[in-house]
Amino acid sequence: MTTSELITVEQVWPQVAPFLFVPQTVQDYDRLVAILDALIDVVGEDEGHPLASLMDIVGVVVEHYEAVHVPELDTD
């Protein structure tokens, strides 16, 4: 990433940060899940949608939080 690109990211980050973050609390997680649900409603399965990669990233962050913080159900 070039310095110019970093400057651009720094300028737009305040608008993006509320939608792309690592959850630290259950409230953060709930908020991120709501964002993911909204993205799924808009993007659906359209891999060419401009927000598809954001949906993928938020999904990975949600999955990671769940893997670390949500106990698996006992299926026995």
Portion in strands:
under 5%
Rg on CA atoms, Å = 15 Å
Helical element count? 3
- General form: globular
Mean pLDDT: 93
- Main sheet, how many strands, which sense, barrel? none
Distance between the termini: 49 Å
SSE string: HHH
Q: In terms of per-residue confidence, which ranges show pLDDT below 50 for 5 or more consecutive residues?
A: none
Q: Residue share in helices?
A: 55-70%
- The tally of beta strands, per DSSP, is 0
By secondary-structure content and strand pairing, the structural class works out as mainly alpha
The number of domains is: 1
Organism: Candidatus Chloroploca mongolica
Protein name: Transcriptional regulator
Word description of this protein:
This protein is mainly alpha-helical. The protein has one domain (12-69). It contains 3 helices and no strands. The protein has helices at 3-16, 26-43, 52-69.
Descriptors:
single chain, 76 residues, mainly alpha, 3 helices, 66% helix, globular
Write a short abstract of this structure.
The protein is mostly helical and 76 residues long. The chain is built from three helices and no strands. It comes from Candidatus Chloroploca mongolica.
How are the SSEs ordered, and which strands pair?
Layout: H1 3-16, H2 26-43, H3 52-69
Helix pairs in contact: 2-3
